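User: New here, any thoughts?
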Amino acid sequence: MQVKQDTTGTTVKLTVNPDQAQINAAKLEAVQRLGAKLKLPGFRPGKTPTALVEKQLDPNTLQSEFLEIIINNVYILALQQQKVRPVTQPQVSILKFVPYSELEVSYELEAIGAIKLPDYSKIKIARKPVSVTAKDVDEVVNNLRSRVAVKEEVTRAAKLSDEVVIDFKGVDAASKEPISGADGKDYPLLLGSNSFIPGFEEEVVGLKATDSKEFTITFPKNYSAEALQNKKVIFNITVHKVNKVVQPAADDAFAATVGPFKSLTELRMDIEKQLQVERSGQVERDYDNELLEQIAKKTDVTVPKPLVDEEIERIETEEKRNLVYRGQTWQEHLTSEGVTEDQHREKNRDGAELRVKAGLVLAEIAEKEHITVSPEELDMHLQLLKGQYADPNMQGEIDKPENRREIASRLLSEKTIQAVKQAIDKVG
């Protein structure tokens, strides 16, 4: 088989001339496929001699079956021979066809080009220090106390540490248009929790049940929704209820209600240990992500546009899923960001391209370092995952082929990152 390859950017054109042996094999397969459907007197289905079957077939039907078979077969072989990694289905053109003696086919497709990795063993990134302060432990203890706190409705004015149940609505101070997501009904707000926009909770302090108030808040310049950064918003609120929040004392008796702790000191020590583990794990995940990002930025590869478009679709799908939980529509989200759908996609393009590049880098390093996930490793990991679920249906989900592939891919990524870190440690 002769293969000629022409590459322009990420577009690859393969021109293939299969040899006579491949042509003969494809014709035989076509005859056998079609012959399996024939019913001839004296022969069982599928047992008719090939030569006799061919005489009974319509020539055009045979040619169509032959071309479908050989076009698919030689395409796969050509990809393997030229080491082309496709990301789209090919556009197929038959350039020349002399029945069962000559064939020339071209395949045009988008593919991943050559990947030139940097010397990742020399990439140095400092891990962030991990620290747990007494204030951090105090915060967890106070959160635990808040969960079991008793709420008593009062008639006095609200003060810090009280819970108020309010209706609120925000409008743009300039246009007087409602702000998406800046409204709520019977919302329980703990004053002093700093869970709302800076300055909002202070405006509620001093109000009683049935009181209403209008005030203006300027959103922070680093607010998560760009469209609201530095924007002035007029809020109207009505207080329905003021609750005094009575928390249990932080003492040994309270510690015993939280878990198997004999004293508050034991509880605090356990919290400190858990925070240390959580933060160390997060630091390591952050390190892995930054390391992979740095390798990806230093890697020379042109990422095909279809791969980036697919990643943008995944990002937006996840975004839309999160918006459902927040009770916000896609259009409301776009409006709050101050962008059109096309502009939103383009905002995600650079990040999507880097994510795709990172995935390609991991695959390339895994191949270079001969890293694989054995069937035994995968089965062991799957068993551990199943052990986390008592529901047989959830255990069955893990065994689905698509989930097995995803888990195997995740394991391969983890092993590859670990190999990179070991290479860095060796260099010192």
